[in-house]
Amino acid sequence: MAYDVSIIGLYILDVLGRPISKIPEGGNVEFIDEIRLTVAGTAGGTVVDTAKLGLNSLAVGAVGDDEKADWVLMTLERHGVDVSAMQRLAGIPTSATILNVRPNGDRPALHVRGASDHFDVPSSMYDQVFDAPIIHLGGTGLLKRLDGKQSEILLAEAKRRGRTVTFDLIATDQNTIRIVRPLLPYIDYFMPSIEEARDLADKQTADDCADAMLNAGAKACVFTLGPDGAYFAASDGTRKTSPAYDIEVTDTTGCGDAFDAGFITALHHNMDLDTALRFAQASAALVASGLGSDAGIVSFDDTRNAMESLPVKNV
Asked: Does any domain span residue 58?
């Protein structure tokens, strides 16, 4: 196949600043330590990280026809991502977010929805988009045109072609389950945060949330639990938790995307389940150590070393 992974969905330009304790009043100025631009989004952040981790990665999404689009495409290419399946939409702004990162790592956001609301994958692109053993759809919830029936058609085609499907979403509420439920039978690894899983399942515990998703058709659930680590549940009855790494958090932007990238990379390398969870968590921990969704991760070997050397929280 031409690619190791095809990453479909939400592509965003993030503008991040830290540390921000308050917004200045009137026209006043507050001085901060750092401002960065990054390619982000539940697809954009993931594809950058899979490329850094050594996978031949195809970006499948949309940008506008503005200066933000120029920067996003240039940066993806600089990281070694194939952008030939990225759509450039005339008259529409590139999706973008301003993130004010607080000293504790929280990140209140201001977002322009832009091109990702107008993105779809036409059947004429299927041969290229599905020319990879792993297909990741990231960003359901902020993909207005693709969300719903179009995503179901897309994932059904991926499974018809024998692909492994991984899935993540964003901006969930209790209504999002109506979009997600029809997709679950086509999803091999459903990878939301525990907060998103609770919104979808209307349950509280990881076990109960997983049961709801598995009973609706997902093959496996992989929940990120923030400082409590990660949780895995599969339709064969497997249940596993993995503790978090004990690190100093700078910014949590993109940690879920990095976890997805790490887990996808682990699938590519046929890692056992315990190692796959540790590798995914090491990827997320590295991103949390810097500002932005592309921070921390350098390479596969560096991430493997981090997995083996970072301290693990006591449980």
From this structure: yes
